[in-house]
Design a protein that fits this description.
- There is one protein chain.
- By secondary structure, the chain is an all-alpha fold.
- It contains twelve helices and no strands.
- Helix 1 packs across helix 8.
- The two termini are about 15 Å apart.
């Protein structure tokens, strides 16, 4: 699609839609960053969302744009994307986010966006237009990120239990109420660094497709980066309280030491994924870490029925958002 053939208002509309998705990502995934710190009573909800939003934004100066490059250039073959594809992808992702937020299901905004791109591109040009390596890397981490979160969360819990084996419960609680602020900050950094870049990537994809920037540029325009980090931070400030309750209370009962181990294990996973340039789900990661922490106490400490319902939501996220995105693509060709 020649850039001069695309009206500026269409590009502005789609950038605004992408930033709405980014805001909803923060709103939807605020629970990932703050559920443990709220459920353990370390911070009040209003304090927690401001704390998490601050670190979401600070991530702008820490992480390289590897994930943005994966989303913007590593999922779809060059020349396939146009503004109809971007419209379909965003509508598919936003629709799934709204549905799962309404029912309090901690699904993945990241995989909703990837599913949206897959569905919209497939509707236009078929599966051959997708870059297999980028898709399979993302799909693989649907299993890798919660598994790694589970392993790290449970290992940290075991290590901490051994180190503090002679300490009193009150002393442990006092220590980890302070340390949980560190772990929550690290997790919020990982959340902002991984998730904001996905929206940067799709706006970058749009600007390349419409001729407003070049595919040879090493980075997207600065305003794209800043606006995406601001949007996700604002979304986190408003928080998705329905999902906070599921993550912080329904899966397993957490104490400050458990919250610290879950957040630290999750943060380590997110930092690794961002370094590798893999767009992972912060929801999958922290859920795996929380289950890992709960399982070190006893298997019955985890409400496996709730965890199972969450896993089903993970399985359906990409195909469901892809199906909506395919329909939205066709709608976009009629109205845009």
């Amino acid at each position: 699609m020649d850039g001069i053939q695309v009206s500026l208002w269409v590009v502005v509309l789609l950038v605004a839609l992408a930033l709405l998705f980014d805001f909803m990502n923060g709103f939807h995934d605020a629970a990932n960053s703050i559920a443990t710190v709220v459920s353990t009573g370390v911070l009040k909800p209003q304090q927690a969302v401001l704390f998490a939003a601050f670190f979401n934004f600070v991530a702008i100066g820490i992480f390289h744009l590897k994930i943005a490059a994966t989303v913007g250039k590593g999922i779809v073959e060059p020349g396939i994307v146009d503004y109809h594809v971007v419209f379909g992808a965003l509508v598919g992702a936003i629709t799934w986010n709204v549905v799962t937020w309404f029912y309090g299901i901690p699904s993945s905004s990241s995989h909703a966006l990837i599913g949206g791109i897959v569905g919209s591109v497939t509707a236009k040009a078929g599966l051959d237009a997708l870059i297999g390596a980028g898709i399979w890397k993302t799909v693989a981490f649907i299993l890798v990120s919660p598994t790694l979160g589970f392993i790290l969360g449970s290992l940290l819990m075991v290590v901490v239990a051994w180190i503090f084996r002679r300490s009193t419960p009150i002393r442990i609680d006092n220590w980890f109420r302070r340390l949980q602020l560190v772990s929550a900050g690290l997790y919020s950094l990982g959340h902002g660094g991984n998730d904001a870049q996905k929206t940067i990537g799709i706006i970058w994809m749009l600007l390349i497709a419409t001729g407003y920037t070049s595919a040879t540029d090493a980075m997207p325009p600065g305003w794209v980066i800043w606006s995406c980090y601001i949007a996700i931070g604002l979304g986190t400030m408003f928080g998705g309280w329905r999902i906070v309750k599921t993550m912080g209370q329904k899966i397993t009962k957490l104490k400050p030491v458990g919250g610290f181990c879950a957040e630290t294990g999750g943060a380590m996973t997110l930092f690794l994924a961002s370094w590798l340039g893999v767009p992972v789900s912060t929801t999958h990661t922290i859920t795996g870490a929380i289950v890992g922490v709960g399982s070190t106490q006893r298997a019955s400490a985890v409400r496996w029925g709730v965890a199972g319902n969450i896993v089903w939501a993970w399985i359906f996220t990409i195909p469901a958002s892809a199906a909506v995105a395919a329909g939205a693509y066709y709608l976009g060709t009629l109205i845009l």
